[in-house]
Amino acid sequence: MSSMVVITAAGGNGTAIEIIDDPLTRTEYSSRGRLLGERMEKLGAEQAGFLVLSQGHFEMAGGEFCGNASRAAAVLFSELRNARDVNFTVSGFKGTVCATVDKQMDGKYSVCCRFPGMSVDIRPTKSCEQTVDVVDLGGIVHVVIEDKFPVQQDAYQEIHHRLTEELNLRKRDAVGVVWVERKGDSVDIHPVVWVRSVDTFFYESSCGSGTIAACAVTGVSDIVQPTGKIIWAEINDDLVSLKSDMEVIYSN
Question: pTM higher than 0.85, yes or no?
């Protein structure tokens, strides 16, 4: 069996997913995933991965952890197993994902993924006379900056590159820089993410792992994405939860 879908999270950040029977090699995941992402970018895909039926596993093309893709995979596992509650594994996270999928209408879902035992390590760090928070989730690391987002692409690319080098993050599977802007009781994020093995670089229209990082730093659960929609996160001692609306926007 092989089919492809694109699923968005909170109105953006589409994940292109190829459903395959058996696992690939890491090199194959990267090369095939890069092509899949490029082919599906015009449909709104900002990343790609593979749902491996024989393993009950979801693997990102770059081997990283992705919160939005995890919830996208939950939608597919729920449909394939005809079950509201599904468990599976994902790249970049050592535990088992426990997901609840509520179908709202054709192609639209509300999905909550729980990640028991996920480590959320926060390390305040000085950078160019500014304190940033390095939030390490294992399969991805985010540098959180509480400041206004520099909207020019050259500006945020340069800052991302500088921080990646300065903080010695070049060898990590994926590195995000997340600008956080507090607006009253709410928090807006602007996530810029680089994935090493597929060498993709996106100002993401929504970001699940970036939402976890912003929640960890600010203590706020409802995080407003660049789409204007919300992803909800909660961090407890031994559990991280992530919830939002999801939508299948392409299927073949």
Answer: yes
